[in-house]
């Protein structure tokens, strides 16, 4: 009976999570394609993409995370059958996105200050700065795509996002080929060409999803594009109140990984490239629990919107159980596939050996990483975001990054461990986050029932 309930609740969760996973893999695949194709040109271009991504990834996730407030708002409105309010949520989230775009533009156009501070070699820093400036052209499209994506996913309608994201990846590959290597009369731009190609893909995706929402009969009754609402600061403030802690929590987690890339920028191109290869592959694996966590946000939000708090708690915990089982399988796959996967990224034997060893270290935190991201996803469905932000800040930056720096470069009993020390810190920080977020989910879900 218990097993039947497990599948009864998790089957619709998986049906939503699978297209979310496909969309995540397609979008993450752009970074993988950039890394693979730049690495084939030179180790310097690969390092430039790695260092540039270490700045762009947390900015992108801060924008994405803040706008993720739209998903539980849409999900709860749909659960309560308040569909007439969806246009307002989309319009005001778009105004929020303008603020986030401006923030991203300022950081990305002045990235050389970050690279100089972290001691990145001048050749890599110049290329990485050019890569980021090229990417800024795609920021508006990226942000608006995320708003419309949250609308679709909050309505339990993720397939259009999947197909459009896949098409964006299809556009990215030939655009990279032309701009990186200088084909069809274009100059050879190397790492900078990756930035322009990815920006082009963002615009293609935003235009296609806008067209879908505008012309599809399912969305016409919402009047998303029939008229545009002026800023309503009370609604904008509410979106920031829910979304900014989500964005900061995701930013903190992403920056835990990417700040490591900046800290090791002075350790040589092999170390930077090896870390980037391992980070790229583990990020792909992480898309599975991340997608389940986002699906949990929608399912928990729907249950709460229809005043079924007990069902919301059951959905959340059954989803966490499913994710832990999948994480165990992922860990086994990573352990055995690491020596072969790294050969796809680089022909440099030293890069391959280092990347494989880091991937096998990542096996040790697969379950805790999956548990923490799914607990956080369920808590977003409850609109419980600020405590999550505090937990992630302490777990990732104090324990993860601080402990990792001490193990990697500090005066510790085992001696400086180099880049591996940072990955030991990840194991500590993610495990701590999993314990605290599961505890928070237990108390929040019970409080909703008692309310």
Automatic annotation (TrEMBL):
Pfam families the UniProt entry points to: MatE
The species this protein was found in: Marinospirillum celere
Keyword Cell membrane included in the entry's annotation: yes
Keywords noted in UniProt: Antiport, Cell membrane, Ion transport, Membrane, Transmembrane, Transmembrane helix, Transport
GO biological process: monoatomic ion transport
CDD domains: MATE_NorM_like
Transmembrane segments: 55-75, 95-118, 130-148, 160-182, 188-215, 235-265, 277-298, 319-338, 350-367, 387-409, 421-439
GO MF annotation terms: antiporter activity; xenobiotic transmembrane transporter activity
Keyword field contains Cell membrane: yes
Bilayer topology term: Multi-pass membrane protein
Principal subcellular localization: membrane
Superkingdom classification of source: Bacteria
Subcellular location: Cell inner membrane
Protein's recorded name: Multidrug-efflux transporter
Gene Ontology CC, one term: plasma membrane
């Amino acid at each position: 009976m218990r097993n039947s309930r497990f599948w009864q609740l998790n089957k619709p969760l998986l049906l939503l999570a699978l297209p979310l996973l496909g969309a995540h893999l397609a979008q993450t695949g752009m970074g993988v394609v950039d890394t693979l194709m730049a690495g084939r040109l030179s180790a310097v271009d690969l390092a430039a993409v790695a260092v540039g991504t270490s700045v762009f990834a947390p900015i992108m996730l801060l924008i994405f995370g803040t706008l993720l407030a739209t998903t539980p708002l849409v999900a709860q409105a749909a659960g309560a059958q308040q569909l007439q309010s969806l246009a307002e949520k989309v319009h005001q989230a778009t105004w929020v996105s303008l603020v986030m775009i401006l923030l991203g533009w300022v950081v990305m156009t002045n990235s050389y200050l970050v690279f100089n501070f972290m001691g990145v070699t001048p050749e890599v820093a110049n290329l990485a700065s050019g890569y980021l400036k090229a990417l800024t052209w795609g920021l508006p499209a990226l942000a608006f795509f995320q708003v419309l994506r949250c609308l679709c996913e909050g309505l339990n309608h993720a397939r259009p996002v999947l197909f459009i994201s896949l098409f964006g990846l299809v556009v990215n590959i030939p655009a990279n080929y032309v701009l990186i290597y200088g084909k069809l009369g274009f100059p050879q731009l190397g790492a900078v060409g990756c930035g322009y190609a990815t920006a082009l893909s963002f615009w293609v995706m935003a235009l296609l999803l806008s067209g879908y929402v505008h012309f599809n009969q399912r969305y016409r009754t919402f009047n998303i594009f029939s008229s545009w609402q002026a800023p309503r600061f009370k609604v904008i403030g509410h979106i920031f109140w829910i979304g900014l802690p989500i964005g900061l929590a995701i930013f903190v987690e992403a920056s835990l990984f990417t700040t490591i890339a900046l800290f090791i920028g002075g350790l040589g191109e092999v170390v930077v490239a090896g870390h980037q290869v391992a980070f790229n592959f583990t990020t792909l694996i992480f898309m599975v629990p991340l997608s389940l966590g986002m699906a949990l946000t929608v399912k928990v939000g729907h249950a709460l919107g229809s005043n079924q708090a007990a069902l919301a708690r059951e959905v959340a915990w059954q989803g966490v159980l499913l994710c832990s089982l999948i994480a165990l399988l992922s860990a086994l796959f990573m352990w055995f596939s690491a020596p072969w996967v790294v050969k796809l990224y680089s022909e440099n034997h030293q890069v391959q050996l280092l990347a494989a060893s880091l991937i096998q270290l990542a096996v040790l935190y697969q379950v805790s990483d999956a548990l923490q991201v799914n607990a956080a996803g369920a808590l977003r469905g409850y609109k419980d975001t600020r405590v999550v932000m505090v937990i992630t800040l302490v777990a990732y930056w104090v324990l993860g990054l601080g402990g990792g720096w001490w193990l990697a470069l500090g005066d510790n009993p085992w001696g400086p461990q180099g880049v591996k020390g940072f990955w030991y810190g990840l194991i500590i920080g993610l495990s701590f986050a999993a314990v605290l977020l599961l505890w928070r989910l237990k108390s929040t879900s019970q409080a909703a029932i008692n309310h």
